[in-house]
Write a structure and sequence with these properties.
Length: 492
Amino acid sequence: MQDAMTPYITPDLPPAEAFTDPAAAVDRLELLYARSTAFLAEHFSASVTAKKPESRIRAFYPEIRITVVSHIKTDSRLSFGHVASPGTYTTTVTRPDLFRQYLIQQLGLLIQNHNVPVVIGPSETPIPVHFAVAGNPDVSVPQEGVLEFSLRDVFDVPDLATTNDDIVNGARTVYADGTMPLAPFTAQRVDYSLSRLTHYTATDPQHFQNHVLFTNYQFYVEEFESYARQMLADPASGYTGFVATGNQVITTADAPLATVTKLPQMPTYHLKRADGQGITLVNIGVGPSNAKTATDHIAVLRPHAWLMVGHCAGLRNSQSLGDFVLAHAYLREDHVLDDDLPVWVPIPALAEIQIALQEAVADVTMLEGYELKAIMRTGTVATIDNRNWELRDQSGPVKRLSQSRAIALDMESATIAANGFRFRVPYGTLLCVSDKPLHGELKLPGMASDFYKTQVARHLKIGIRAMERLRSMPIERIHSRKLRSFEETAFL
């Protein structure tokens, strides 16, 4: 249709409509989004092969809107699924097909808890053409410089000024129109991260599962594939497929996987279940920057938990190579999150995660109680951004580590935990001691080989077992009120 007041054309879409059936509401979201992105894709393809369009081409994200007029309290035991006070709450939505079950769950709780409908219609936020055509096999994207006009003269493009974390950081509690955020991320922010995930992991976002393991060593990947093949050989396991880098999918234990000659920055693998409750393993490599990047983007998928299962330096002489460290506190010297989450903010241990990890260690090692203490310590994990901190004057770092009572040091765990806290994603850390630099115990090549062979499989199995314990936990228990602030979005 042509708007006489503005120089752009938009698709014909149904007007905003109220729904009390969450599934029907999501159906409408999918219809609005599909028509809008198809409209943009059609006009983009036409503009590539023909001359520059005479009018701007624009389509809008779909929007969810709910208005609550009563102060009546809902069940306060639940940390999500309700708004805190009367008012109108909104959020834009992208890829409703990808988030269908999540949206049905969240909308169902809202409708049930407040006894009001949700209104579904087009928003006033344009869809950037880059996100609309990304991954569309029917759209041929020309190389830069081929077009005779600038894309931004015709289509909306990503606007980083509005693609931010203001909501989760607590800087945005009211929009300019007086409405309040309904979800932790806007559609533009989600689209940005979905695009980045594809780039960094070489797998599509649709493959990500609700339980995410992070590691800092590629050795864990081989063990994860081996475990996945064992599960695919067992019809009772509940797992339906394994996805490797490059979106290679296998559904049987003996199916081949091609060797990838060039790995992405963060190789990612998915052991899938039909309900999405499987396990994703991400090798983030070494360093807090990678840890932040990965969690920044995976957070938009709203996983139920993420855990770090990597290697660390043991800081106590009583520790041995191969011992486990269960983090119950974090010393943050990673510096990558200081602007978003000040270092004075405590990152608490989450009881549900701690218990699941400790019980998983006991299950796999067949040790418990006092005997378990022989191979596992619980304490503070320090995370720093200087890989070669040992080469500096040790009086400063060692004093801080001692004052903090730290028992292990790495470059990723506190970043992952802090971003979990920031994004309201339950988090935890179980590390394996691979060296003891303060005590002169470094891995020699032969020692490292034997160490990795004997410990990696057991460590990974513990992480998987912990995730399986968390999977059996009611969602309202794992997503507890501990991670929620004063003014929270209704959506998880």
